[in-house]
Amino acid sequence: MEKALLAGGCFWCMVQPFEEMEGILNVESGYTGGHVENPTYEEVKSQKTGHTEAVLIEYDEKCVSFDDLLEMYWQQTDPTDAMGQFMDRGDSYRPVIFYYNEEQEKAARDSKRRLEESGKYKEPIVTDIEPAQTFYRAEDEHQQFYKKNPRLYAEEKRQRKEWVDERKQVGAE
């Protein structure tokens, strides 16, 4: 079993796409990168803990690769927005690929470079790539949000898609 730690705005919208991939064993919502131990959702949301909302993905590398996860990641985020994601604003919602080893770091940097070179976005790609830090699991009500709150999740997902589509270049050469 391998693990990946990815941040792309509100963790509510980051779980389902990864859970639906073959080879994914578990996806948990949580917080990482801050200076407060065992932060709560309210503390992180206050922007005072230094934490970023993220998902911890456990996967079977025989079925799915870290590169596969990165491909899915880019489809879920706006990599041109360093100050949050979509309607979620602030450092706790910034896009970050956290790495656990040199291979993940290299894969993340290569993937980001390919996206930059693709011309897919009008603005520069600003997603950070950083070493993984302690991951704190979010409270139970934040786990499996898309299953527990299907209507609210559907609206969040729709708004995210509109935001991303608006920022992409249409017909980029």
Automatic annotation (TrEMBL):
Annotated catalytic residues: C10
Catalytic reactions on record: L-methionyl-[protein] + [thioredoxin]-disulfide + H2O = L-methionyl-(S)-S-oxide-[protein] + [thioredoxin]-dithiol; [thioredoxin]-disulfide + L-methionine + H2O = L-methionine (S)-S-oxide + [thioredoxin]-dithiol
UniProt-listed Enzyme Commission number(s): 1.8.4.11
Membership in a protein family: Belongs to the MsrA Met sulfoxide reductase family.
PANTHER family: PEPTIDE METHIONINE SULFOXIDE REDUCTASE, PEPTIDE METHIONINE SULFOXIDE REDUCTASE MSRA 2
Annotated function: Has an important function as a repair enzyme for proteins that have been inactivated by oxidation. Catalyzes the reversible oxidation-reduction of methionine sulfoxide in proteins to methionine.
Keywords: Oxidoreductase
Residue span, Peptide methionine sulphoxide reductase MsrA domain: 3-154
Keyword Oxidoreductase: yes
Gene Ontology molecular function: any one: L-methionine:thioredoxin-disulfide S-oxidoreductase activity
Gene name in the database record: msrA
Top-level taxon in the UniProt lineage: Bacteria
Protein name as catalogued: Peptide methionine sulfoxide reductase MsrA
